[in-house]
Design goal:
The chain contains five helices and seven strands. It is an alpha+beta fold.
Length: 221
């Protein structure tokens, strides 16, 4: 199959189809999509018919996912399409998975869907299995406590049913995905320069959530 015309390497960055969303995609995170807008239906059709079964996602700062004209952030995540099926009405059901951080160097004309010149954004430092395993184990224990509190307040628990990755950096992303965090908190985690900073920030966020959820439970009692 031939590559999508115009989505080859670009001086100043790789040219990549983009799907801005009102949520933040993290590496290792599953992204189910119901694609109904015309421009993204075209994008999915082109992607699945080419070798480029990959797109980028960034957070919409202002505006809507539908209609265009939104203000987009310049930090996001690559997503690879794991499954995609087109329905008789032309809409798509897509399951993608976040793979790696990226930065947008420049936005190109939406023709018809968003496209950007991007570059990969590797972490400045990596967690070491020999010295940081205990740190991540403590983080996981706190995330499970927070998940348990959220379940008591009516949320659906996820952590007990999920097999976490062996890679410590990816595991931190997974813990952030499965924790009750908002889009702006996940954006802050995505923008951390390295894995140690990300683990530390997630620990702070989970500590705050543990206090807040515990207070809500006490109030409800």
């Amino acid at each position: 199959m031939e590559p999508i015309p115009g989505l080859d390497d670009l001086a100043g960055g790789e040219r990549l189809a983009m799907f801005p969303l009102g949520s933040v995609l993290l590496p290792g995170m599953a992204l189910p999509l119901r694609v109904f807008e015309a421009r993204y239906r075209v994008m999915m059709s082109e992607l699945v018919q080419s070798d480029a079964a990959e797109f980028g996602s960034v957070l919409i700062e202002r505006g809507s996912e539908v209609g265009g004209g939104e203000t987009r952030t310049d930090v996001g995540c690559r997503a690879v399409i794991a499954r995609a099926s087109e329905h008789p009405d032309g809409t798509w059901s897509v399951l993608a998975v976040g793979t790696a951080r990226l930065r947008v160097r420049s936005w190109l004309p939406d023709d018809p869907y968003p496209v950007a010149a991007v570059e990969d954004w590797d972490d400045a430092d990596l967690l070491d299995p020999a010295s940081d395993a205990a740190l991540v184990a403590d983080l996981e224990a706190r995330a499970r406590r927070v998940a348990a509190l959220a379940v008591e307040l009516g949320a659906r628990g996820q952590l007990p049913d999920v097999e976490l990755a062996d890679d410590l950096g990816l595991r931190v992303h997974q813990l952030a995905t499965l924790s009750p965090l908002g889009a702006l908190d996940r954006r802050r985690l995505l923008e951390c320069p390295g894995q140690h900073a990300r683990a530390g920030l997630l620990a702070e966020m989970l500590a705050e959530q543990e206090l807040l959820l515990g207070a809500r439970l006490s109030f409800d009692d």
